[in-house]
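Dear support,

Our group has been running a series of protein-ligand predictions, and this particular one with fe (ii) ion is the one our PI (initials K.S.) wants archived with full inputs and outputs. We had some confusion internally about which version of the output was final, so please treat the block below as the authoritative record. The input we submitted was:
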Amino acid sequence: MLQEMPVKPLPVMLPPDLLAFLPCPTPAAWVQAALAQQDVLLLDHRNCELKAAASAMSLIARYSHDAQLAMSLSKLAREELVHHEQVLRLLKRRNIALRPLTASRYAVGLRAAVRTHEPAKLVDTLVVGAFIEARSCERFAALVPHLDDELAAFYAGLLQSEARHYDNYLQFARRFGGEADVRRTVDRIRPIEQSLIESPDAEFRFHSGCPASGA
Ligand SMILES: [Fe+2]
Ligand SMILES: [Fe+2]
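Confirmed final output from the archive:
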């Protein structure tokens, strides 16, 4: 049975272009699962921030000839590491012991759609980055009205950074791939993202799909 969620209105605004970019909203059942497992939510969120920094750094290393990309992603990676430290502090305050968690299927599922030749590989990787940032942002917004004051304020602040990161990734994708190829890539990846978000998922994670019944 679904638990009753206290709803506390907070002014959380998502950029309209970011909402239109995503193929579907987060299922209500995922929000329920997140509220029921806030320790797993926070532990996996911590992992996501670390992976976001690592992905940005890996792009800098792989495409090191592009100074603009390197500078922008270096700043982005630093922001993700600050988020990582903020989640670590929150985990400590809440006495949630650190433990390893398996990764969700989400990023692997999206990256399987990345073309293998350049420059398409870079364009697709940047578009995948935009999807991950946009979905993170949308999930923070979906959670905020139901969280305690401390976590709500933290997530409301974070979603503004992730919205900027979504924009950064998409702008760079357009720079390397051009408007038409990026549009085609977004159209190709949207149904994959939708399926990863809406199809039943046995494991709850920050980017997991719809909780399978009984999960
Ligand atoms: Fe972040
Ligand atoms: Fe981010």
